[in-house]
Amino acid sequence: MNKLGFYRDKSNHLFVQDLNVNLLATKYGTPLFIYDAGLIEDIFVKIQNAVKNINGKIFYAIKANDNIGIIKFINNLGAGADVVSLGELKKCLKVGMKPNKIIFSGVGKDREEIAFAIQKKIKQLNIESEEELFDVIEIAEKEKKNIKIALRVNLDIKASTHAKISTGDEYSKFGISSSEILKVCDFAKKSKYVTLHGLAIHIGSQIFDYDLFSSTYSALEKLAYRLNKNGFNIKSLDLGGGFGVNYEKYNFHNFNELKKITEEIFLKKKYEICFEPGRSLIADSGILVTKIIRTKNSRKKSFLIVDAGMNHLIRPTLYNAFHRIEPIKLNDTRKNKVVDVVGPICETGDFFALDRKLQEMSKNELLAIMSTGAYGSVMSSNYNSQKNAKEILIYKGKDYLIKKELSFNELIKSHVIPNF
Ligand code: LLP
C-alpha cells in the first residue's frame, strides 16, 4: 500500500489505502466524509520541508476541519494549532496538544475566551484591535498572569480571491491598520504582564499569487525591523495561511514557491516564523460520498438528487466554489450527460454542481464530491433537520469513525478516536 489519497483500481472503483470506497459507504451509510491520514501526513511533511530552513513552524488552522480525530492526528504529526474560539481551543487541549503550541487568532474574542487562554498559558494571542488589547491587559493584570501577544496588522493588501475570504485590505474587519500600529505597540509596552513578541498577517484564503505573498511577507519584515529599531522586541512573525488548492487537479501540491519566497526574505534573519495552513493541509485528503436518491428531468434540466445537501457542504452555493464530482465506479461504456447535482434541501441554492458533464448515473449509485476535507463538514449545519454526515479517517489501512462533538472520555471509551 503506497498510494496516497483516492485512486482507482483496475476495474475503475474508487479506493483509498487498499479500501474500496463503495464498501466503506455500505458499512457506514451515506452521506459520508472519508479522510486519508496518509495524504494529510504527506502534505504536512511537504510544508514542513519547505519552511524548515527558515525556522518555520506549522500551526494548523483548526477552522478548516475541527473533527477531534483530525486534530488529534495532526497534533501527533507535531503541528501546533491556530484557533479562533474557546471551542477550538478546548478541542486542541482535549487531544493533548500543548498550550505552548497554540495561537489564538480572531477578531472578536470575548473576555471569557481571553481569560481562559491566559490561564492555560497558550503560546500567543493575536491581537486584532486596540480595544482588544485593552481587554487583554486588564484581564492579565487581574489574573496576575503573563501572556505573549502578536499584533495582527492590516497593511491594506488586496488579494485576488473570492470577496468573502479576502481579509487583507482596510475594507475588511481584520487586523490593525498601519497608521495605528505604533500607538498600539507603545500601549502594549506599558503593561507588566503582556509581552509584545510578534507580528501577524493573513491576507485571505485560496490565494495563488506568490508574488503577492512575497511582497506581503517582505512588508511585514520591514515593519518588524522598524519597530525593533524603535526599541521593541519583535522576535516572531506569523505569516498566516491562505495557500491555494487546485480543486480541478486533485492532489496537486507544490510548496517550492513558498520555500523560495520565504527563504529569500527570511533565511538570514533570526525570526521564528509561524504558518497557519488550513485548506492546503487538509482539503484534498477528504471526499464526501453521497448516494443518488433519484433522477429527474425537466424540459430545461436533468437533475441527480443526492442524499447530501448544502447543509453538509455549503461551499458551492456560498462561494460558487468548484468541486470535482466523480462516480464511485467509473464506467467507460456509459454515455456522458449534462446534469445538476443537487441535494434534498428546500432551496434552489442547494447544489454541488450545475451543468456538469458526468457519465449517466442511476438511482442508488454513489458519487464522490472531491477535495472536501477543508471547510466541508466543519461548516455543516442541521438545516431542514437533516442529520450530520458520518466522518471516517483511514489510518494505516484501517477505517476509524471520528466524531466532532463528543467529550474526549467518551471518544476514547467508544474507540472513535483511533489509538495511534
Ligand atoms: N489564519 C487565519 C487568521 C485565517 O483567518 C485563516 C482562514 C487561516 C489561517 C487558514 O487559511 P487557509 O490556509 O485555510 O486558506 N470557508 C472558506 C475559507 C475561510 C478561511 C477563513 N480563514 C472556504 O470554504 O473557502
List the helices and strands and how they pair.
Elements: E1 6-8, E2 14-16, E3 19-20, H1 21-28, E4 32-36, H2 37-51, E5 56-61, H3 68-77, E6 80-83, H4 86-94, E7 102-104, H5 111-119, E8 124-127, H6 130-143, E9 147-154, E10 176-177, H7 178-189, E11 194-200, H8 210-229, E12 236-238, H9 256-266, E13 272-275, H10 279-282, E14 286-297, E15 302-306, H11 315-319, E16 325-327, E17 336-342, E18 351-359, E19 366-369, E20 390-395, E21 398-401, H12 408-413
Parallel strand pairs: 4-20, 5-6, 5-13, 6-7, 7-8, 8-9, 9-10, 9-11, 11-12, 12-13, 15-17
Antiparallel strand pairs: 1-2, 2-3, 4-14, 14-15, 14-19, 16-19, 17-18, 20-21
Helix pairs in contact: 2-3, 5-6, 8-9
Bound molecules: ligand LLP.
Describe this entry's structure for a reader.
- This protein has 420 residues and is α/β, with parallel strands linked by helices.
- The chain has two domains: 6-35 and 284-406, Lyase, Ornithine Decarboxylase, Chain A, domain 1 (Beta Barrel); 105-276, Alpha-Beta Barrel (TIM Barrel).
- Helix content is 29%, strand content 25%.
- The protein is built from twelve helices and 21 strands.
- Strands 4, 14, 15, 16, 17, 18, 19, 20 and 21 form a nine-stranded mixed beta sheet that branches. It has an eight-stranded parallel barrel with strand order 5-6-7-8-9-11-12-13, surrounded by six helices. A three-stranded antiparallel beta sheet has the order 1-2-3.
- Strand 7 (102-104), helix 5 (111-119) and strand 8 (124-127) form a beta-alpha-beta unit.
- Helix 2 (37-51) packs across helix 3.
- The longest helix is centred in the middle third of the chain and has 20 residues, at 210-229.
- It is elongated.
- The mean pLDDT is 94.
- It binds ligand LLP.
- Ligand LLP binds at residues 61, 63-64, 82, 105, 165, 202, 205-206, 240-243, 276-280, 315, 319, 375.
